[in-house]
Amino acid sequence: MSPAPEAAVPTVEELEAQERRLVFRRFTNDDAWALGSLLVELARERRAPVAVDIHRAGQQLFHAALPGSTPDNDAWIARKRRVVERYGSASYLVGSRFRAKGTTFEESSRLDADTYAAHGGSFPVTVADVGVVGAVTVSGLPQVEDHRLVVEALERFLGE
């Protein structure tokens, strides 16, 4: 996957629309396995050196480390997932909101950068009439590509 042109970077409004659209009716352990497996399949097709992780309610339901990924990807996953858990929004959206205000997450969030990373790749698992129950996270590509890979998998999984 090559980096997208700057014009293709999604806006805050587009990112917010993705979150409104990509909502589950339910999210079971089997759903986590199927979604994670789909993400691995998409990543393998692209020879993407990523790690994939799905958490729900503090429990890891799925994890895979594809060839070329490293332990550092797991550290990024944890940092990005914590942003979703704290803000209830995609890690890329959180970072984009700070950038839209003329600052950065690192400068203005007052959170430890070793614990939180508002970089693309972690997306909330939202269940209708419940709210955010977890996160699906990818690490290993440039942040906008990590985000796009997760969104593509969610769109396919949810039949969009």
From TrEMBL:
Family matches, as Gene3D superfamilies: Haem-degrading domain (3.30.450.150)
Family from the record: Belongs to the UPF0303 family.
InterPro entries: PduO/GlcC-like, PduO/GlcC-like_sf, YBR137W-like
Domain of life: Bacteria
Organism, scientific name: Streptomyces pactum
Pfam families: HbpS-like
Name assigned to this protein: UPF0303 protein B1H29_23195
SUPFAM superfamilies recorded: GlcG-like (SSF143744)
